[in-house]
Structures are given as structure tokens and as C-alpha cells.
Predict the 3D structure of the following.
Amino acid sequence: MTYTRKQVQGSNVYLYSVRSYRDPDTKKVRQEVTYLGKEVDVNGERSVKPPVDRKSVRRVLDSGPYVMYRVAEDHGFVRQYEDTLHGLTTIKHAAGKIIILAAESMLGPGHSAYVHTGIPELTDKEVRDVVDLVGRKDPDIVGMLEKCMAPLIVKEFGSSGLVYDLSAGRYYGTENDLAGYGHYYHSNGENREINFVLAVTRKGGVPVHHRPLAGSIPSVSTIRGFTGDLKDFGILSILIVIDRGFYSSDNIKDLKNYSVIGALPSTVGIHDDLIRESRDIENSRNYFQYHEETVFLNEKRIHGIRYIVFFSPRLRTRKLESFYHRLSEKEQILNELMGRKFDSPADMIRSVEKELRGFRNLIEIVNEKDSTKFSYTLKHKAIQRRTNRFGFTILLTNTQLSGADVLKIYRDKDRVEKVFAHLKPHLEPFFSRSEEGTRARLFLAILGYTMVSIAAHRCGITYNQALETLSGIREVVYSTGLHAHVEYTKDQRELLEKLKLEL
């Protein structure tokens, strides 16, 4: 059904053609809205003044998204996407449109990619169609696109291995099945969150694998899916660096065919046993210099896995000072609360529990039943058990790398944390109502990040420098269809030369 809608704004009347139709894939009713023009008075009669043809006037457009498109094209992503999507969609130029939307997720709309690629500018409906395609779960379009792209990235950037981690984005919607209360609940304003895992190359920090997950799913539950995806991608032998949150005996078994470097969590019984066995670690036979830091190490092999105990006197001193400073602050707060009047015992307990966060198992609260008065004592043995661990880090590996190299590689795992930091401004907060929408938005943002990070690595600059340089490149497109770039800065010229691109 098609009808004309009038929108009145002050003395102006704007006309729109509205077509209602049922989407054959989702069976949902959608609307396609086309602007017809503005009603004007001509010689006493009302007529419609058609909209200006924006394509026939002089425009200044950003060129960064087109540069990103060319990076994806040069790396074979566009061709691989076309082959993968063949027969799965009727959307014309689907592969190119996915790349363009990914570039827009980083740099925004209003760009010259359409001018250079010949792909028609996307209408709102076409954007929705492409997003719906990307978010589809049956078949898993994201997995298929990632599968064709991952081997290309590993071949160029994966020689030094992958770093794998989990993070979460705040969710402000109401209906998404992935939204839940998880590990970061207290630190994100007590909002629900959506988790996602990410594996990036140690060289260049280029994403190879990602998956959105329910906010309640812990890190330790994700390894089997990760290794299954790597095998499906044909990535059968590579170094994987994981944080302590992913440690479990089952996960170590799932990772046995890969080279692994990880950390042992302090909650595992063997952790404190290894520290006790290393009480004489501060010995000249055990030391090495790590940058400006003196580190001691001790090693034990259990069931084919090397557990390497590292001890840093500098780190221990810093942690002890920080811990006792915070403990002193907690005591001062508790002393103030002891002199405060509370409305009820429940009010007192809530106030005390809130202030004890992070120290609850180190301080014992004593209060009489149905009383608003309390006292406290320090649990000295528990405090000693915690401080005994300060300065110690226990890493595990199935490689033959030296202890110093294992420590260096593990400490470089912040590569993936930097990627999370760059991505989250483009993702948070999540508003998508569906898992499919979340999958599409996450994939497009990570693909956009991938193109910028590849450009940064090729040019020998940081991600932020690449993004800033790309954001400033512009072109003038004339009514004749001709176009010319705005004068380049030194950084822009060098970036385009290194990428071997001309606009």
C-alpha cells in the first residue's frame, strides 16, 4: 500500500511517499519513505517543489572510508566476501556494501566511497537489508565472512601468535537475549552487559576472531568454542596467549594442539603450593633483568605443562604499599560508620557491605542481632595469605621458550586490551533489540577497526594516528562528476603514498 504523508513544520508543508510492505524474510511489516518535495504557492495554486538533486551539486566528501575500502580490497576481503555470499543474498554489491558500512562505523557517513566504487548510495532500507544479512544466524554469515578472512590475516600478521580475551559492553535496551548481569556489573554503572571475545594478532593487533556472548557467560567457558572456530578456519598451529580468567584443566586440554602461554589464577590450589615451594627464589642463580626490573624465577613441570614462578621485589613493594594504604582507608571509613546512626539494621549492613567491597573476606564485622551498632576486627591470617602472594606471578606454557621470553610475551598481552579500548567508543552502549542486530553491529565495527589497523601497520604509525589522518582526507565532487582532492597535509600524503593510493 502506498500513500502520501504531509508533514507540517510552521508555515511549510513537506510531502513524503510512504510504501508499506511485508519483508519476505522476516515477515515483519516495513515502510519505505521517499521525500517528494515541499508544497509552494505558484500564482495562487499549490504545487510541489521537488527536492534538490544532491548528486548534481558541488559536494565536499570525506575520503577516509574509500581508503579503508581499498585496504580491504587489496587484502582480498572484497573478493572473498563476494565468493562467500554468492547464492546467499539477492542484494547487489553486497560485499562492497558491507565494507562501506564497516568504514562508516569508524568514520561516519558523507564520504566518497560511492563515487569511486560505482556502488549506488545506500538508502535507509538498503542499510537495514545489509545489516539484516550480516546479523543472520542461519546460516551464520559472520562466521562465514570471518572464516574467509582469518587465514589471510594470520598469513600476514600471525607469525608471532594471537592474544585472546573477553570484554563487555553496557546494554541500555530492553529486549536483547544476550544482555545479562556479569563480571563487570559493578564497574559499568550496574547496567546489564553483552560480552564479546576477541583474538588479535600480537603483531599489529589485527582481529582474527570474535563472538558476541551473553553477559552472564564467564571467560573460562569460551575456550572450546574459540578452538573449534580456529580449527574451522584452518588455523591448526599458532601461539595463543590467554589471561588467568581462561584457566581450567579442561581448557588446557582443549588448547593442547596449540602453543599456549597463560597465567595461573590465585584461586587454584596449586598456586599457593608453587609459591611456598619458591620461598628461596631470591637467589643469584634465579635472577634476570627485565628492562629495568630485577626478576627471579623458578620452574616446575606438571603433566607436560611448565609452571614458571616469577617474583618481582619491586612489584611486591608497590603492591604492599598500595594494599595497606587502602586497608587504612577502609578502617577510617568503618570507624566513621561506627559513630553514625542508621535507620535500621538492614540499612547499617548495606552501608558497611558497600564500603567493604574488595576487602570483605579480610575484615570481620561483629554486630548484635537487630542492632544498628557494630564493631570490626582484621582477619590477620587472611591478610597475610593475600600479601604473601604479592610480587609473584605464575605463568604456564607448553612451549620451550625461555622463562624471560614467556614473561615478555605474556606482558605484551595488553595488545588486545588496547583493541577493546579503541572499539568500545564505537560500540557502547549497545541498544540493539535483537541478537542479530548485535552480531551485525559488532562485526561491522571490528571489520572497520581491522581496515584501520592494517593501514596503520603498513604505514608504521599507531592506530590513533592512522584514524586521525584518515578522518581528515577530503575530496571535492563537482556537478560534472569530476572530483579532486583537497590539499593534503604531510601525514596524509605519506599515508597515501605508503598505501600506494591516489584519489
